Amino acid sequence: MADRLSQVAGHLNYPRGLLAGQVAIITGSGQGIGAEAARLFANEGAKVVISDVDAGKAQEVAKSINSAGGSAIAIPGDLLNDSYIEELVKKAAEFGNGKLHIIVNNAGFTWDGVLHKTTNKQWDTILALHCGAPFKLIRAAAPYFRVKDGEPRNIINISSTSGLHGNAGQANYAVAKAGITGLTKTIAKEWGPAFGVRANTIAFGYILTRLTQAKEEGAFVTTPDGTKVALGIPGAQQAARGKGAQGEQHVDIPLRRPGTATEAASSILAVASPLFGYVTGQTISVTGGRNI
Fold first, then answer.
1. Which GO molecular function entries does the Swiss-Prot or TrEMBL record give (predicted)?
2. Active-site option among 14, 84, 144, 173
3. Each residue of 74-120: pLDDT tens digit?
4. Is 173 annotated in the active site?
5. Are 35 and 61 spatial neighbours (Cβ–Cβ below 8 Å)?
6. pTM strictly above 0.85
7. Buried b / exposed e across 25-59, counting CB within 10 Å, b at 16+?
8. Domains of the chain (ranges plus CATH)?
9. Which residues pair with 203 in a beta bridge?
10. Nearest one of 19, 21, 55 to 39, comparing CA atoms
11. Cα–Cα distance measured from residue 252 to residue 255, given in angstroms and rounded to the nearest whole number
């Protein structure tokens, strides 16, 4: 035990950072929580692979990290394309001189609809992106995780309170985000005993991103077939949820405010770090206390 504590303390005092020498793929890291996580990881010594469907934004994040003295590469593409997933793993391993240490499955968006009006396309797309793509990426990266080289390996899957508690108008998203927690636990049980791989889920609550901004602001994503999907929450719905009888803001959140993208990303860094070295198979709620 003393030796293990000394090892962790050594990590904390290591001048190059908590993730020094590790190679991390972070999906959806062209903006929002993913981009903040990429910057935090790079600050802690990781070589970061920026994966995003928006090539321009991915390149911008990689450039900003490299300009600040970090190490990053942009490998943009569509996670719903199986060939891209193979390319992502191949190029990431090349960037890491034959090694991968961390995968953060963060990419995704919402395509809401009440149950009886949700289309097959809405259902299939959201499940494919939030469950299918993470599974395929992890499977493709298996040769770099099922190894015994004494180095840490981490998989962090991003979920949501919608996956823990359900949410009206989000049957597809709720099912997908619930499913990813089962995948996480399975990875922990399959790859933990022989290879020491840690796998955890982070379930976010109300975080300030384009998915929680007012829908009237006009943010959208375009699916592979050209369909534009509006993002955000209708302003009237936000107002109704945000105030209590006395006009108190965010009454369903004990901290009385949404989280920031940086706060959300900081929790990802914490889980990836040696500070969480004995934590695996868990779903960690980062919600400001919402739903307790």
1. 3-oxoacyl-[acyl-carrier-protein] reductase (NADPH) activity
2. 173
3. 999 999 999 999 999 999 999 999 999 999 999 999 999 999 999 99
4. yes
5. yes
6. yes
7. bbbbbbbbbbbbbbbbbbbbbbbbbbbbbeeebbb
8. 2-210+258-286 (3.40.50.720)
9. 159, 285
10. 19
11. 9
